[in-house]
Amino acid sequence: MPTVKKSIAYRRRGAAATLTLNGSIGMFEAEAFHESASKALADTPAKTVTIDLAGAERLDISALQILHALRRDLAQNGRATVISEPTERTLADAIAAGMPL
């Protein structure tokens, strides 16, 4: 039986954390994305949080709002955010929403 990837996952190793988004992240995944983003924000040993978009098929406006709020809040706490491997579609989604990555 094939393994299904979680659409949203958060992991930390040392001072570096990764929040991975897979598939289409929209309003139905917003609660899980918000919970993972909150976990990243509360995880103060993580000085850098990488948002891995390599497996993301699309991001709707709710996902982009959560992403931008996370970046803002991490920056306010002196922590860094890295956007990793955005797909052409996720870049286009962000530009269309007026929220470039």
Task: Please explain how this structure is put together.
There is one protein chain. The protein has 101 residues and is α/β, with parallel strands linked by helices. Helices cover 38% and strands 33% of the residues.
Characteristic terms for this protein:
3 helices; 4 strands; 101 residues; globular; 4-stranded mixed beta sheet; alpha/beta
Q: Helix fraction? A: 25-40%
Mean pLDDT over the residues: 93
The poorly predicted ranges are none
Q: Please state the oligomeric state of the protein chains shown.
A: single chain
Indicate the structural class.
alpha/beta
Judging from the principal axes of the Cα atoms, what is the shape? globular
Order of helices and strands: EEHEHEH
In the sheet with the most strands, the strands line up as 1-2-3-4
How many DSSP H or I helices?
3
For the largest beta-sheet, the strand count, sense and barrel status come to: 4 strands, mixed
Total beta strands: 4
Task: Tell me the distance between the termini.
Answer: 36 Å
* % residues in beta strands: 25-35%
